Amino acid sequence: MQYRLALVLFTTILFSTSALLALGNESTAKIGVDVSNSDPKWGETITVSYVPPDSSAYAKKNNKDTIYCAAMLNTSGGSNTLVIPMKRKSDKLYSCLLPVPDSTSSIRLEICIPTDRVPEGITIFTCKDRNNQPPPGTIFETSENIDSAFAVERKLYPWNYLAYHAAFENKIEFAEMTGKKLPDSTRRAMLLSAIKEVREANAKTVNWYFALAELEEMRKGGDSTAAALIAEAVKLRTYDPLYNNSNYWNSFFAPHMSGGKVFMPYEKSRALAPLVEMFPTTEMAKTWLQRVTGDTLLNATVYNKIASRWKTTYDVDVLNSLAYAYSMEKSPLYNATLALEYINRAEESSRKKIGFYMGQNIFGSMGRIGGLMQLKGTILSQLGKHEEAIFILKKSLSEAKETYDKERIGMALGRVYATAKNFPEAERAFGTALSYGTRRNTMGIDEVYAQRKQNNESKEEYIKRIADFYSKQVALPALPDFEYLTLDGIKGSIKQHRGKTVVLDFWFISCPGCAIERQSMSDMVDSFKGDNSVVFLSVALDNANSLTAFQEKVPSKFPVVPSGNAIAEKCGVTGYPTHVILDPNGNTVMWELGGSPTSGDDIRKRVLEIHSKRK
């Protein structure tokens, strides 16, 4: 909900959040933007204010923590993040000044500390140029005004042919949101009309080629045509502002699902390699480096050249991607020595929060260290330094607080022990790690299974046996009781479900991992239809209005609890999606972070295991 504030010379953005920055219930969330009844303009300085509720640690008089405003600016020169410490003006008011540079199209604000943020602690808004006009590509919103917005965009920026693609997608989305799903024939006619208009322009610019390729890719049988258009864009070898549009490239290189599996667009990535090589420091190149790491057909010479331009970065995610790429033993890039250099730099940036303070990646110090140590242990083992790898992984395991970190570090430790031929310790590490989650990640266990299996037990039987054995020695986080109110108006509490198996899903609308698993989770709920011994509950961070609009488009099989930030915080959930299973006695038997196309099936198997023990 937005509140207009009567301010003339600057913008004030108000955040009302619960402890550790999570927004509280819907009535306390206050986000407002105003500059003379307009959007922030280039050259302006805006005031950002944060108002914590009474329950927040930051509302306490004795709080000494520095709170930061992390402003992620999308400009024609790329994404730029300003990290600004906020001054405490009173017990309940923090603020700072934020300049709006020229060419800024949008600003994403996060109120955070170096080690914590949540999806709701943000707001995103568009800017105006010095003539009070919206920058290209920022006019569209999913509403009935799509056609008029498209007309304005075409008049102001006739060179931006990507507007055709945006208008088409927004029309489809708006129709679905309002329950007026367009017939396939209408959608096809709209798409062909857009393709025809763009083709007739025949501009043959970078923007034109990519816009037409996006449209052709949506047409049945248009993939080869889209690929040919991208190839023509590459041949131009000229710079275009599109290369620094981070939102575009995140979408362009995004994985897609087919047949229940996730696929990376490696063919598109390879086609773009010459262009990335020519412009190696753009947002296009940065995203490309992070998305091609699993491609075994990658041109190593080209990748090495592009990667070398990022060796001085402190962006933890880029460094981690580079380390991973060079640690893949079956890849033409394999170079464990170089991988170790990159992972060491990533660790330094994360532990010292360098990337945060420099604005290169504010999330690099927020829960990344477990994954970095997992990879570092693997790389050290590749270099034959098994003892050092075991020492680092065991130390990291003892320091890990999150269940997800304990699981993945433990799996890495098991693989290192197996490489060192210490199979009893490998079994212990694997068994302990597998006892945390759905047991779907068993990479590296084959040799241990061959050495440690009993009689003729199958691999699946072996995994279940060791996981069950070590689960008795593992204390998963106890889930505290909490009361809830679903979107349907149903009140309840966790305690009232004693005697039943409870499956909880913590998520939020824009969470990528949540989207990947959505279909499998829905199928899983369907598989227990009519089974009153299982209770499903979805705790979402988004407010009721957002969830209602979302569910009109994507219905949920779970009963959904809105504005679940306080619940998530109380339960100790720090990443999304998180799945928790409670047995009929209220004991936590699974706590797993991360989404997968098979999440639903994996959870179903764990629930059936619980049921089998009751018989």
Mean pLDDT: 86
**Distance from first to last alpha carbon:** 50 Å
Oligomer status = single chain
The dominant shape is globular
- Total number of β-strand segments? 17
Q: Main beta sheet, described?
A: 5 strands, mixed
The CATH topology of one domain = Glutaredoxin
Give the name of the CATH architecture of one domain. 3-Layer(aba) Sandwich
Distinct helical segment count: 22
Task: Estimate percent helicity.
Answer: 40-55%
CATH superfamily of one domain: Glutaredoxin
Helix-and-strand structural type: alpha+beta
Q: C-alpha Rg, in Å?
A: 25 Å
- Biggest sheet strand order reads 15-14-13-16-17
> Strand fraction band?
5-15%
**Main CATH class of one domain:** Alpha Beta
Uncertain segments are 1-37
Descriptive labels:
single chain; 615 residues; alpha+beta; Immunoglobulin-like; Glutaredoxin; globular
How is this fold's topology laid out?
Blueprint: E1 12-15, E2 45-50, E3 68-75, E4 78-85, E5 87-90, E6 93-99, E7 104-112, E8 122-126, H1 146-156, H2 162-177, H3 184-201, H4 206-218, H5 223-236, H6 246-252, E9 256-258, E10 261-263, H7 266-278, H8 283-291, H9 300-308, H10 316-327, H11 336-352, H12 354-358, H13 369-382, H14 386-399, H15 403-419, H16 423-434, H17 446-452, H18 459-471, E11 483-485, E12 491-493, E13 501-507, H19 512-527, E14 534-540, H20 544-553, E15 560-561, H21 565-571, E16 578-582, E17 588-593, H22 599-614
Parallel strand pairs: 1-2, 13-14, 14-15
Antiparallel strand pairs: 2-6, 3-4, 3-7, 5-6, 7-8, 9-10, 11-12, 13-16, 16-17
Helix pairs in contact: 1-2, 2-3, 2-4, 3-4, 4-5, 5-7, 7-8, 7-9, 8-10, 10-11, 10-13, 11-13, 13-14, 13-15, 14-15, 15-16, 16-17, 16-18, 19-22
